[in-house]
Design brief:
The chain is mostly helical. Helix content is 69%, strand content 0%. Helix 1 (16-51) runs antiparallel to helix 3. The relative contact order is 0.14.
Amino acid sequence: SIPDKQTEVDVPLVDESLQQRIGVLHQELQNYDSICKKIDKNNMYLEERNSIQFDAGMSEPTEFEFWDEYQTLKQDLIMLKRDMDKLKSDIENTDVNDVCPACGQTIDTSHLKKLKEDLQDQLNEKTTLHSEGLVKATKWSNEIKELEAKKKVYSENKRNIERFEHLTQLIDSSTPTEY
């Protein structure tokens, strides 16, 4: 199809002061988007920084002072438990029959009874040591868990302080908070 005939229209001359004002307004409109983004970003940083909670006076928790002793105690408890199991087995396997099962003749078992009593005494002593060591190990284990929890809180606090400082550097105080 053939396009319609177009006619030229005279465009009136624009006052030069208005032309300059139009140019300034056009530039401001182009900058408005980037300014709004900058304000939004700055406000986001301000909001995040203001929401961060930390304790500036918190000191780093100390290390557990009995770490080597704790490790040694754990090994000792394992050895005591193994010794106790062996003694229990020896006591159970010590047969104190005063009659021979083959011929029915009486047997002097005083030596076996004495041996069994000695084994039981050793077992009682090791059981006592094991119980005392277990109490101490449990106490130290709880202290270690407590220290680990304090270290975790300290580490989180330190991260919050670092984030606060970083955001403070990113925030432009010359940027307005409203559009």
